[in-house]
Amino acid sequence: MPSTALPTDQSSPLARDADALLPAETEMATFGMGCFWGPDALFGAREGVVRTRVGYAGGTSRNPTYYALDDHTEVVQIEYDPDQWTYDELLEVVWANHNWATEQKRQYRSVILAHDDTKRAIAERSRAALADRTGQSVATAVEILDQFYEAEDYHQKYELRTVPVVADELEALYGDAFTASTVAARLNGFVAGYGSADQRRELLATLDLPPVVIDEIRRRL
Ligand code: MHO
Predict the structure, then answer these.
(1) What's the 14 CA to ligand 1 centre distance in angstroms?
(2) b/e code 203-214 from CB counts within 10 Å (16+ = b)
(3) What distance lies between CA 206 and its chain's CA centroid?
(4) Is 35 part of the annotated catalytic residue set?
(5) Which atom of ligand 1 is least distant from the CA of 151?
(6) Most buried among 65, 114, 136, 197, using CB within 10 Å?
(7) CA angle 4, 9, 14 (to 5 degrees)
């Protein structure tokens, strides 16, 4: 009888995503760092970041959209592997990659939306340490996340969507699973210039992506 326990084909992007940590094995973080396209790519490129999505949070109105944001803020939400990242380490990436010293309009405000009280305390300590070591005042708010509203599809993995042909091919491949794809998160980061050369080479060389996708992404690197 043929074995039904076939080994997972690790060259398939869908199989690679299926092997990623399950939501129950990850922890979550939500950050407002200005326009959410950039941090989606920044974090998506990092090993140990399992999934990313962008959305609206930190306000009070129900069901905000990009054109009806009300008092919400653009945020990136990440699921990460707690064996590879501490919350403190993620916060260092946040401080190093946006303008936390200047008040912005509410859409782009700097905000850490902690998922529980422990993380809120860590974020408050991290913010105080940043002020101490820089001697600057920090405009960043630290709050508990209430509700996260996922943004429209056309904002998800935005950098990747700007590469001709690639968005169409990947959406055809993934369908509704595109936003939650770990592979798409990495590729989105790579096309924005994040990730090491080795990391990019490894992923592109071992994944069975449509040739046009590989070509277009390589052209951007
Ligand atoms: N279109 C704006 C930012 C968009 S971001 C989703 C710009 O590039 O200035 O807010």
Answers:
(1) 30
(2) bbeebebbeebb
(3) 22
(4) yes
(5) 6
(6) 114
(7) 110
How far apart, in Å, are the Cα atoms of 98 and each of 39, 41, 55, 56, 108? 9, 13, 17, 18, 11
pLDDT tens digits, residue range 162-178?
A: 988 898 898 889 998 99
Query: Ligand 1: which of 35, 53, 75 to mutate, judged by most atoms within 8 Å of the beta carbon?
Result: 35
109-129, pLDDT tens digit by residue? Answer: 999 999 999 999 999 999 999
DSSP secondary structure letters along 97-109: TS--SS---GGG-
Beta-carbon contacts of 26 under 8 Å, excluding residues fewer than 6 positions away, are 50, 51, 79, 80, 81, 82
Global pTM?
0.94
Q: Which residue has the tokens 């994040």?
A: 194
Ordered domains of the chain (ranges, CATH): 24-150 (3.30.1060.10), 157-220 (no CATH)
